Every structure is written in structure tokens, then in C-alpha cells.
Amino acid sequence: MTWSVDEIDYAAIDVARVRDNRTLFYLLTSASFMESGSDTYAGNLARHYADTPEAAAWLKQQWEGEELQHGLSLRRYVEHVWPEFDWAAGYERFFGEYRLTCNDDNLETSRALEMAARCVVETGTASYYRALEAASDEPVLRELARRISSDEVRHYKHFFRYFNDLNDRERHGRLKVLGVIARRLLEIKNDDADISLRNILRVERGRDDIPDADVAALNSQCSDMVRHNLPIEMTIKMLLRPLHLHARIERLVHRPLVAMVSLAILR
């Protein structure tokens, strides 16, 4: 790990700057839930790459631990700023649903193409934390979001290297890789956010029957904040790398890809 959660000075948080920002509360709590469940998904991925020992070892020995640290560091931030929220109860409810979605059915059958899909996911998370950094002027949150985003960019580089190594053997063409990128991009706004936000509301309201319309409205509110702070150029650059396009082609597809990113991540 390049840093430790113990390096974050939670006592220095300027609570007054962030306490009343409920949208940030939902974004940070939701992210803390999803990152805290990373070990389940990491285990699935490591088994998927059992015949690629280097990748499997990195997933279990480094990636999993760093993702879990993201979850812990965000949890500590949420509990410091909003101590009245029962994080443990919310996470228990969330994970009960989330673990059912973590299965091999969601993985590409091709090892190389799953690495391309992971590049899309890491692009989304790196951009998400950059957006959180830009959305707040609270110094500790900005530092924490910057550290996590840097980790996600570094993770992306690992997945990109493994994609290149595996695709040298599997020889998938650009159209097939583009299909995976587009499909995973359109799926990136999946049920995970709804599951986390629904269970946050359940704890807040002390009831299980949360209307779908309330979850959808809250998800839209959170997406608006991300949309206004998303580093779009960084996002596009990362998405295009697995295609290994010539500069002229990149310029041609830039505008439609911006539209696709807007539709997928920001809808």
C-alpha cells in the first residue's frame, strides 16, 4: 500500500464545511459501503484468473487490501462527520443484498476482455473520486479523495497491462474490445448505487419499505453532483487506451464517446 488510513488526520476535519451537505453524505456513505465489500468481488476475480498466477496474486495480495482500505477510510470520515448515522447497521443491510450480485455470471468469459472491462470500472471509480475532491472545499476530504483516486488510476494501469499481455495471446480485435468497453460503460450505473442508497434510507427512516421513486430521486441528486465535477477529459483518455487507436481516430470518436459517457455515468 502506498499510504495508510492512519495517516488521515480525521481530527482535523472542518466539520462545519461538510456537515450540512447531504448529497456528499450519501455519496461518501454509498462509496464506503461498496468499497467495504470489495473482498467478495476480489475473490471472484482471483479465481477467474487462477491460470494467470501473477494477476491472481496481485488481486488478492494488493488490490483487495487497498480497496478495503478505501472503504475503511471513508467509513471513518462518515462516522466522524455524521456520528448519528449507524454505519454498521446500514452496511449489514447493504451487504446482505450486494453479495448476491457478486458472482461469476457478471465476468467476461475471455480473460483479456474481462481486463478491458476492469479498465472501464477503474476509470469510473478514479473519475468518481476526482469529482468528490472537486465537489468539496473540506481539506481532509479533498486529500482523502485524491489519495483514493490516485490508487484507482494505479489499479487501472495494472489492469491495462494485464489486458495487453493476455490480448497478445487471445488476439481480440478493436471492435470486440470496443463492444466490451461500451457494454460495461452502459452497465456502470447498475444496481449497486440503488442498493446502497436504499439501505442508507432504511437506516435513516427506520423502516424497510422505501419507495423506488425515493431511491431514484436520490440517485439522480447524487449523479447531478458527480456530473458537475467529473473530469471528462481524463475519463475519455482512460477509456480509449485499450483500443490502441491512432491519434486521428481518437479525435474522430472523441465527441460520440463523450456523449456515451454522459449517458452512462451521468444519467
Automatic annotation (TrEMBL):
This is Ferritin-like domain-containing protein. The lineage of its organism: Bacteria, Pseudomonadati, Pseudomonadota, Betaproteobacteria, Burkholderiales.
